[in-house]
Design goal:
The structure holds two protein chains of two kinds.
Chain A: H1 6-11, H2 17-20, E1 29-31, E2 43-44, E3 47-48, H3 49-59, H4 66-81, H5 106-124, H6 133-143, H7 162-171, H8 174-181
Antiparallel strand pairs in A: 1-2, 2-3
Helix pairs in contact in A: 3-4, 3-6, 4-7, 5-6
Chain B: E1 6-9, E2 12-15, H1 19-31, E3 36-39, H2 51-61, E4 77-78, H3 110-114, H4 124-138, H5 165-176, E5 182-183, H6 217-226, E6 231-233, E7 236-243, E8 250-257, E9 264-268, E10 271-274, H7 277-287, E11 309-320, E12 334-336, E13 353-358, H8 376-387, E14 390-400, E15 407-415, E16 421-426, H9 431-454, E17 458-464, E18 472-475, E19 501-503, H10 518-537
Parallel strand pairs in B: 1-9, 2-3, 2-10, 3-6, 4-16, 10-19
Antiparallel strand pairs in B: 5-12, 7-8, 8-9, 11-14, 11-17, 11-18, 12-13, 13-14, 15-16
Helix pairs in contact in B: 1-6, 1-10, 4-10
Classes of the chains: A mainly alpha, B alpha/beta.
């Protein structure tokens, strides 16, 4: 009954989030005003778009390319925007009580984005988005100094910091898994049974 | 009865609408002309057209695809591992995994063959045609294993789900360890079948199949209702059965609507069938206590709610020197029944064996072994290193024989909106199983170590069931037998004490074997349906 276990599924809640929710949820800019304090108010569904983009350049692999990075960022925003706080969790095996998803993590993540900027101002004398990537990385590392997660990235919904959430969201996508494995598996994507007996094709080759 | 009470007359009343009820109703609709009425406490579940979206939400956030599939005040407590509060049309099988192995012949003759536990009142051969019927009605895709390990009267109705690239490598490894393993039988369409699509390996069989390739009971209910073969009454909780004090025959079922109105409903029938699973079937019998039956109906033996049975598992993750690619079809597995048919005379251990690809130990991480933060390409480079190689997951369910006091009782401290006490579960091993437990689990760990060695691999970790929580694929509570003093129903599911009362499927089982149980629950239910049809004709 537990193959793979329901808990494993809940642990990986967020898998394919970019591929699924982003495909059905729009992403709009709400305002483009800037403040004089280094914070930039390009709000993307509540997130500061410039800060989020600057953060993505630190946490996402540069090797995926700028376009893929932008897509991943948009997918993260759409995913966060689509979250329904306190919706029923999947139940079934293992416990009989009905459980509910946690509160919306986005407000804390948005505040953490602003805090990255404040920390950059405090430690580097510049706003986060104006720093070069190595300097931004130092700011992010300082913000994450208490974060452990040695074994594996958490599911994005369980991420305690926006930097981890953004990274974890991308890492849970089929494209990220394909990159890590070096082949076209696309875990979790619905696709035909044909060809499952063959070794997966390398990602550099023709599409499976 | 209130002024607005509703009365329903039926020939055959089925209480519950889970997978056993659905397929029994289908059989009865084909084999009798009686009016079949099915009463379900919950509502209809997420329509098929909405399941792609429901899957997306589950994958993205962990949301239940089956929201509001339960009644908030109708639940079980205690050791409830393996129990689901699902109370909707289709029951728990709306989110089952579809894995459909048969028990082995030994399950039916443990006392005769091994001197432990109890025999069932019928044999594997007796059940074989009903296994076949269950497989055909659900559409089970399976591969014939070695006949000595995997006996069956006819071939599987559907060709097996393919052994994918990962499982091929693991099959070779298992063979090197001396273990024949083959494609796990599953109620999933390996080819288009019964108007439903071919599996598209979405890997969310549990909890939701968006394509309809996995069998779920709603398909049967939709066909039966649209064809006017049954009357399906939802949101109606049967709370009590009443028996004629002279004849013992059940005379009526008393129910209430579970919507806001709570209207009283009375259902009369010639035949009453409890198909509400291992919790709610015995629970209803216990609730139906009266002055003549102070311990509930069908309970002359005092065994209603007792002998709850299940199994536990030992699970391991192994690193192997091969290359696997997690996600090709992660919910599909290999199965072996080699250990379900042990030699007599040896210390008793029976178990199944399942083998999966796994991503354990191969996921991305935030910090490296020295604690350094991994972001950007550093994270991806580290992940590529970790993702190389192979992890296999192996798991063995071993059977646990039930103690008489492994039981469901009424908990007066927890009541539903109508004041009915809710069920409390307390699983307990038989003396024999309790004495064997430590040795059995160590034997399984030893097997996994030997398998790792055979593949030049290593154990990453091993773990046991959290057995303080209960047992898996539970059954029992209305055990079948030939002796009315030692059982609740006879070998056909007919109550010893009430000739027109039948209990179907899981509750009647003497034991729960050492593999997934749903197929057997259904086969046992179909066997009961055959007897009901026979009596109806008579």
């Amino acid at each position: 009954m537990t193959e793979p276990t329901r808990r494993a599924f809940l642990k990986t809640a967020g898998l394919l989030a970019g591929a699924t929710v982003a495909g059905t949820t729009g992403c709009t800019t709400e305002s483009t005003q800037r403040s004089a304090t280094g914070t930039r108010n390009d709000r993307v569904l509540g997130f500061d778009g410039d800060l989020l983009t600057a953060l993505a350049e630190v946490v996402l692999p540069a090797s995926i390319g700028a376009d893929a990075g932008r897509r991943a960022t948009r997918a993260f925003v759409a995913w966060a925007d689509g979250y329904d706080p306190v919706a029923e969790e999947m139940h079934g095996y293992g416990y009989s009580d009905v459980r509910y998803l946690p509160a919306d993590p986005s407000p804390a993540w948005r505040a953490q984005l602003d805090a990255l900027n404040a920390l950059a101002m405090r430690t580097k004398g510049k706003g986060f988005v104006t720093l070069d990537v190595p300097a931004r990385s130092e700011v992010v590392a300082a913000a994450l100094r208490r974060e452990r997660n040695n074994d594996r990235l958490p599911a994005p919904l369980g991420a305690s910091h926006v930097a981890i959430a953004l990274l974890a969201h991308w890492a849970s996508s089929p494209d990220a898994w394909n990159l890590a494995l070096g082949v076209q598996v696309s875990p979790g994507a619905c696709r035909a049974l044909d060809g499952v007996a063959r070794k997966p094709l390398p990602i550099a080759g023709p599409r499976a | 009865m209130t002024q607005n009470a509703r009365t329903i007359a039926a020939d055959i009343l089925i209480v519950g609408s889970g997978i056993t009820a659905a397929l029994m109703a289908a059989r009865l609709a084909e084999t009798t002309t009686r009016k079949i009425t099915v009463v379900e406490a919950g509502r209809t579940s997420t329509p098929f057209a909405e399941r792609t979206r429901a899957r997306e939400r589950f994958v993205a956030y962990g949301e239940s695809p089956w929201k509001q599939d339960h009644l908030d005040d109708q639940n079980a407590y205690g050791t409830t591992w393996g129990f689901s509060p699902s109370m909707n049309v289709g029951g728990l099988a709306m989110h089952w995994g579809g894995v459909s192995p048969r028990y082995s012949p030994e399950d039916f003759q443990l006392r005769s063959q091994f001197g432990i536990g109890d025999d069932w009142p019928y044999s594997y051969d007796d059940l074989d045609p009903f296994y076949q019927e269950a497989e055909e009605r659900m559409g089970v895709a399976g591969e014939q294993g070695p006949p000595a390990l995997d006996p069956r009267g006819k071939p599987y109705p559907l060709p097996p789900l393919p052994v994918n690239y990962n499982l091929q490598q693991l099959q070779t490894w298992a063979a090197a360890a001396g273990i024949p393993a083959w494609s796990t039988p599953s109620a999933k369409n390996s080819i288009p079948h019964a108007g439903r699509a071919q599996c598209q390996r979405c890997d969310t069989c549990y909890p939701v199949c968006p394509t309809g390739a996995k069998y779920s009971p709603d398909f049967t209910w939709d066909a039966l209702v649209q064809g006017r073969k049954v009357e399906l009454i939802t949101e109606t909780l049967v709370r009590r059965l009443e028996a004629d004090p002279k004849t013992g025959r059940i005379t009526r079922a008393l129910a209430n609507r579970t919507d806001a109105g709570g209207q009283a409903v009375t259902i009369t029938a010639r035949t009453y069938v409890l198909a509400a699973g291992f919790v709610w079937s015995p629970h209803l019998l216990l609730l139906s206590r009266d002055s003549r039956h102070p311990n509930g109906l069908a309970n002359r033996s005092g065994l209603v709610g007792r002998y709850l049975a299940g199994h536990r598992n030992v699970n391991a993750y192994l690193r192997l020197p091969m290359e696997l690619y997690p996600g090709i079809n992660a919910q599909h597995s290999l199965v072996s029944k080699k250990f379900m048919r042990p030699v007599r005379g040896q210390r008793y251990l029976r178990h199944d064996l399942r083998i999966w690809e796994s991503s354990v130990g191969r996921e991305p991480r935030l910090r490296d072994d020295k604690g350094g933060l991994l972001l950007g390409d550093a994270m991806l480079t580290d992940w590529k290193t970790r993702a190389a190689g192979a992890t296999a997951r192996v798991r063995a369910y071993y059977d646990v024989l039930p103690h008489r006091d492994s039981m469901l009782s009424l908990d007066d401290s927890r009541v539903n909106r109508f004041g009915d006490p809710m069920p409390a579960l307390a699983f307990q091993d038989s003396t024999e199983s309790a004495a064997l437990k430590a040795w059995q689990e160590e034997s399984l760990r030893t097997l996994f170590r030997e398998m790792a060695r055979a593949g030049n691999g290593e154990i990453l970790r091993m773990e046991n069931s959290a057995n303080d929580l209960g047992q898996e694929h539970p059954a029992g509570g209305c055990r079948a037998g030939n002796d009315p003093a030692q059982s609740v129903v006879n070998g056909w599911g007919q109550a010893h004490d009430h000739e027109n009362l039948w209990v179907a499927g899981a509750p009647t089982q003497t034991t729960a074997s050492c593999c997934n149980g749903t197929l057997t629950f259904v086969a046992v239910g179909l066997r009961t349906a055959s007897a009901i049809a026979r009596e109806s004709v008579a």
